[in-house]
Design brief:
- By secondary structure, the chain is of the alpha+beta class.
- About 30% of the residues lie in helices and about 25% in strands.
- Strands 1-2-3-5-4 form a 5-stranded antiparallel beta sheet, with helices on one face.
- Strand 2 (about 55-65) and strand 3 (about 70-75) form a beta hairpin.
- The longest helix is centred in the first third of the chain and has 22 residues, at about 30-50.
- It is globular.
- The N and C termini lie far apart (about 35 Å).
- About 25% of the residues are buried.
């Protein structure tokens, strides 16, 4: 999927994610976690990678497997220093930071979050595993 770097198009991306999670038979919590993470990765690509330049597209690739979904969000921006991102956005010294929670949220919601930086830009690779069918936790 390719979208221009426009924040208002993230709703379209979310619709695709919700549809795929439904096909994967993710429960509500997992679907919400995947959705939040993909929207965050897309927001980062648009705002930080492309500085909201709609002429620069964001590419999103979805791969569905029997046990997981993998999503790659690619922008052509210069990348960033991953070690400079605050690791625990809930620590007292970062609680009032106006930014910097997105990667923390993605890492909390997904089973794997990896970044690849190259001359062609930045790729955020997200992975969410689905519990085997019939092993969903009991409802409360």
């Amino acid at each position: 999927m390719r979208i221009p770097s426009r924040l208002e198009l993230l709703g379209l991306l979310d619709c695709v994610v919700l549809s795929l999670c439904e096909r994967m038979r993710f429960d509500t919590d997992a679907t919400t976690q995947v959705s939040m993470s993909v929207i965050e990765a897309g927001t980062n690509a648009i705002q930080h990678g492309h500085h909201r330049d709609p002429s620069r597209p964001v590419d999103v690739d979805f791969q569905m497997y029997p046990d997981r979904i993998e999503i790659r969000v690619h922008d052509t921006g210069p990348g960033f220093d991953l070690s400079s991102i605050n690791g625990d956005a809930t620590s007292p010294e970062h609680l009032l930071d106006p930014r910097g929670r997105g990667i923390f949220i993605m890492r909390a919601c997904m089973d794997a979050v990896k970044y690849e930086f190259s001359a062609s830009g930045t790729v955020c690779h997200l992975v969410k595993h689905r519990p085997p069918l019939g092993t969903e936790p009991p409802s409360v």
